[in-house]
Amino acid sequence: MRALILFAAATLLQAQHYDATWESLDRRATPGWFTDAKFGIFIHWGTYSVPAYAPVIPGKLAYAEWYWNAMTNGRKPGAKDPVQTGTWAYHQLRFGADFPYENFAAQFRAELFDPDQWADIFQRSGAKYVVLTSKHHEGFALWPSKEASATWGRPWNAVETGPKRDLLGDLTAAVRRHNVRMGFYYSLYEWYNPLWLTDKPRYIRDHMFPQFKDAVTRYQPSIIFSDGEWDLTSAEWHTPELLAWLFNDSPVKNEVVIDDRWGKDTRHKHGGYWTTEYTAGMSGMDHPWEESRGMGFSYGYNRAERVEHYHTGRQLVAILVDLVSRGGNLLLDIGPAADGTIPVIMEERLLQMGSWLEVNGEAIYGTRPWKSTRQWSAGEAAKVDYNKEFESAYDVATLIDPAVGKARIEAFFTAKGKDVYAILPRWPGRQFRIKEGALQPKAVALLGCTAPVHWKATGGAVTIDLPDLPQDLLAQPMWVLKLSQ
Fold it and tell me: Model-level pTM?
């Protein structure tokens, strides 16, 4: 039956024609693979990976991939932003005031880049899709884009300078060999592109449109994360015309998933799935959504960050579980080094997540929010302003950490068909009581454990007697109870 439904959906997509208007484009449903996938890997990699720096300032995000913009603004008289002034001070100290950013391109060599090793890590992490920056706001292209070099008036792609290699193409092929979906990030604007600065309509017509179509046609992405849209409206960008081509005539018209960043008027209004970054995310399944974030405070690799600035594996699992319980996806970023290696701490975190998902993935993939998304400790729900709590903490860690007192969230919930999953952020001991949902299970199991689980459903609650766990399961970041009804 599921195969018939998917076939019918694909046939409908093939038959549909879209006009270059939001009214028409917004009728296209996001392909279902995206809402089932739940977990993807974001990769910020480019010439900014050479300096790989942003000041670490408590309570402030500092994106290392914004190095060029930060140093440029930080050198202006009267500059006060500490990220910008700190970046400029670092640049003068390390490279010298007369060293132009463009010279980093030749030093971005990726000499140790092994795309199959990357793809193996992504597959083992449990991620179902990968999104690489085809180019960031600096405009440097990771594929042989003729438009990049033409409008910059210098070699400005990874085949003509630096690595002398099609990085996007090589990683795309490797990821697909590992049966993971592949896509790319694409910035509409480029901070200092001469054509952007002098003639925006021509930049859009002669640079952005052909460059975007070239990348789509070459690499046939399953997902496109557009960005850098905020300077112009979607009408000025002519993005409805671009998306009409994507959905009607491109080689990925039926499969491709897009986000909502296509003009300063489109976020959470038009396009594909809604996006958030370094926030609590959203909730519900009325419209697909995705939260993206790095493991620390930056997307691009920041050498100034230390281990204490990185989320632990347990915290990253908690973030994934929390987002999925509310209906969203997590796009977790890594920032490779300029030599093409993934920093070991990032690799370790991905493999920690993969180990947990290998045992408990059925509570994540293909699930939907249940009638309750979480179970609070007695009296705790009334105390917490959920959104403010997350805005200050950036994640769910403070709501599950026994170190700050009794863990306030006792369980997260997801559902798939008639099965309900209770995901426990700490091991409760001999017994756990589900107070939510008036469940009447026919069977209860602890994922990863073969020992029988006994339970009793009374008064709308389910009391579960938990088995003794072997050490490997006791060391998990979270535990999953499956209740089949």
Answer: 0.94
